[in-house]
Amino acid sequence: MLFAEPERTAYDLNFRLFRFPVRVHPWFWLVTLIFGSNRFHPDHPERILVWIAIVFVSILVHELGHAVAFRAFGVGSHVVLHSFGGLAVPWDNLSGRGRRAAVALAGPGAGFLLAAVVWATNESAGWAATGVLARDSYIDLLYVNIAWGVVNLLPVFPLDGGRVSQEVFGHFLGHRGTRAALRLSVWTGGAVAVYSLLCLARFAPLMQVLEQAPAWVPDGGLWTMVLFGVLAYQSYQLLQQLSWTDTHWDQ
């Protein structure tokens, strides 16, 4: 399963931040490097290093948002950064749908707060206009913390939006809520994968729409196509498992 906690390795980076244990799996650095490969230039290697630092700080802030929310509800946790992002792993079960939804929302919320701080400091000091590297850093900080945060709120398992949808559907539909949330996850994940495929193919009607769309509307790419295709398939598998269990339980 994607987004499961990876096993420990001898090359993990371990430290504590605000009394939270943090572990960085070595694949985190490689995947982050691949995601930012278009920023690499042999004459300006600092650009890719700054990108890695921005992703590291941004995902760490996101996961600390979850961890702080867990702590506020009396549950300890640790943070793991790995190849597909990060996890805040609780040490105990958290009861209450509202609490679990609040914990899920706290991660993107922390990223949005960081983006607001970045924007506010630039508005007051104008630091993004001091050079090309500063400008690119400003854009990347806003992009990672806003665009990635919005994508993370899509109702797709096991993203934060998928967890929130599970709690919302569960509140209104009871035991049928998980099945409804998984169906939504399959359709949403599949739609994002198809959208990304059409973007890759430069499908003319879609390109015309995107040309008129606001600048913050992201294009789909190979990574989003693969990622959301896999997540949609995993949700489909979970839905099939639930159906099998319910059928055999009834018998």
Keywords:
single chain, 251 residues, alpha+beta, 2 domains, four-stranded mixed sheet, 65% helix, globular
Descriptive account of the structure:
With 251 residues, the chain is of the alpha+beta class. The chain folds into 2 domains: 9-152, no CATH class; 154-246. The chain is 65% helix and 9% strand. It has 8 helices and 4 strands. It is globular, with a radius of gyration of 20 Å. The model has no long low-confidence stretch (mean pLDDT 90).
β-strand amount:
5-15%
Strand adjacency order, main sheet: 1-2-3-4
Number of helices: 8
Fraction of helical residues: 55-70%
* Strand/helix succession: EEHHEEHHHHHH
The tally of structural domains comes to 2
* Biggest beta sheet attributes: 4 strands, mixed
Averaged pLDDT, please?
90
**What overall geometry do the principal axes of the alpha carbons give?**
globular
- Give me the secondary-structure category: alpha+beta
Radius of gyration: 20 Å
N- to C-terminal distance: 29 Å
In terms of per-residue confidence, which ranges show pLDDT below 50 for 5 or more consecutive residues? none
For the secondary structure, the number of strands is 4
Give the helices and strands, then pairings.
Blueprint: E1 13-17, E2 20-24, H1 26-35, H2 46-72, E3 77-82, E4 85-90, H3 97-125, H4 132-152, H5 160-173, H6 177-200, H7 204-212, H8 222-250
